Amino acid sequence: VAKKIEHKRRLKNAEDNRPQDVYKQRPPRSKWGPFRYQDLGVELYPLLYFTSDQIVDFITSREANKKRKLTIWIQNAPAQVNNRYHMGTNSSKCRWAHCPGPKNTILKGFWRVAFDEDSNSTGNIYDPFLNAGYMHLFCFEELFNLGFMVHASRYLGFKVEADVRDFPYESRNPMSIKRDHEALLEVYKKFVAEQRTKYPVLEDEGELQRLGRQWIKGTAFSPVATTTTTVPAGERLWRQLTDAHLANEVATRHATRENRGGANIGQHRGDLRMYMQLKKAGGAPIDAASLGLPPPLPAAQKRKREAITIEDDEDGQQYQRGGGGQQRSSQRMRRTHTPSQLVIPNQPQSHLPQVADEHLDGEYDLDSAAMPPPQPQYYLPRHMTTRRASKVAGSALGERESEIIMDVITSPVRMTRRTSQALQTRLHSQPRFVQKQVLAVIPEHMKEIFNSEEEEMKSSKDELAERLARLPRHVRFEVDEFAKKRERAARELASF
Fold it and tell me: Where is composition skewed (Polar residues) in this entry (predicted)?
């Protein structure tokens, strides 16, 4: 293939980089049961969330399409690919009605599963970024015994596989589980191999086929009955993949995460419920034992320095050995917006009452009465996050100025006098409207740095206005004319 679709920021929105020019549009699908597809035919309608039984029906039923080739792909959650979905951010939401995540959002750093109903054609004929729906891998393992399902699924009418595909029309696969480290594929293979010793029925193909037929008919076997509350968190795939990811990351990334603080992957280690508990703590220092957190992993050993190049991609984590280069700062990202042409309903729709599933009781005790509230210990007022700061600065700041200013105002450490003076100099070299944008969102404890200069400027303007008011009318007129002449000259100079 001569031309492949690029995922680099500066190229992904180019006119010659359009997925619709490469892939065919899928035929429309009809509504069945509670499952309704949007007009373009492949994605389930946005803002529809499903109960556990409904998800079982979706996986096992042949009512929708007898020729359906369903594969459940275990994937990395890709970043900055909303332009590839029909419904933007609403397409990639977790579809479980009881998802503990924030607004069902699958955040980068968490693993997910994709429901691909045309798996024999995606990547070659159809766009691999368009699937029926997604779930957190964490939520999926809350419902199903993944270790059993990986082996038994082929007798039950679908497949469960790790996404390690190489697409002929894509420059890379940002959803691959080995996107960041090749070692993660070995972790998955080891997980799959260990399951056969746990479930003797996996050795009896005849029994599996019988159970599969009964499962599909809904007469006996149900995957929910064999799952999750008995599987320790340490034996679940989301935990093993996350631990392997942390063990293989460079030591500087671990140090940066610890300095930044907050609810980070080193604390929750892929546990979505623990992540939400950490978020409720406000990013303050907490007692891990009070939340039932797993012990943190030790910092990665410092490796021998190697020359690497980091591809300018969406995630900034595609490392290629053998060359120099530095990673682009996250503040340099140019935000793009792809408005959807489809109408999203104002009110989310739900088909059945969202009642907590009984089979989820057991592993986590999140009762506030049983769990003492964490005690925040701020040494300084809470600092602004890099993400929020970059939203404010946007493309208005120059790249070098943006990086320096954002690094300083997002630092949780009290600044020295020299640092604050340097920040003042750099910030006031920017246009006035940019200064106002940054000053509007910086933490309260940092505004005192700029108060003295702001007050001085205000008093100077007030004094100048008073002096002008005391002048005779004809003199004020001459001053106004002179000021207008200088403004016109400045505009003419800027136009060249």
Answer: 338-347
Residue 7 neighbours by CB under 8 Å, 6+ apart: 81, 170, 171, 172, 174, 313, 314
pLDDT, mean of residues 148-157: 82
> What token pair was written down for 474?
């004809």
Instruction: Output the DSSP codes for 158-170.
Output: -EEEE-----TTB
Whole-number Å distance between alpha carbons of 454 and 463 = 14
Q: How big is the CA angle at 362 (ends 361 and 363), to the nearest 5 degrees?
A: 120
Q: Which whole-number Å values give the CA distances from 169 to 58, 82, 152, 318, in the listed order?
A: 29, 18, 32, 18
410 vs 337, more confident: 410
- Helix orientation angle between 183-195 and 237-248, rounded to the nearest 10 degrees: 150
| Most distant CA pair in the chain, distance | 105
Predicted TM-score (pTM) of the model is: 0.58
What pLDDT does 363 receive?
38
CA distance 459 to 391: 31
Strands (E), 224-291: none
- The whole-number pLDDT of residue 221 equals 45
Q: How far lies 235's CA from each of 231, 264, 284, 365, 485, in Å?
A: 7, 21, 29, 19, 75
CA distance 136 to 496: 54
CB neighbours of residue 54 within 10 Å: 19
- Give me the pLDDT at residue 365, please: 38
Torsion over CA: 53, 277, 146, 233 (sign): negative
In angstroms, the CA 242 to CA 124 distance is: 30
321: left (phi over 0), alpha (psi -120 to 50) or beta: beta
Rounded to whole angstroms, how far apart are CA atoms 450 and 438?
A: 11
CB of 283 within 8 A of CB of 262? Answer: yes
CB 284 within 8 Å of CB 374: yes
CA 212/CA 350 separation, integer angstroms? 29
- Rounded Cα distance between 202 and 207, Å, is 8
Q: How far is residue 172's CA from residue 6's CA, in Å, rounded to a whole number?
A: 8
Query: Taking 90 as the threshold, does the pLDDT of residue 76 lie above it?
Result: yes
* In the chain, domain spans: 19-360, 407-495
Residue 164 amino acid letter: V
Task: For the chain, give the percent of residues with pLDDT over 70.
Answer: 61
Q: What confidence tens digit (pLDDT) does each residue in 406-432 have?
A: 555 555 455 566 666 777 777 777 777
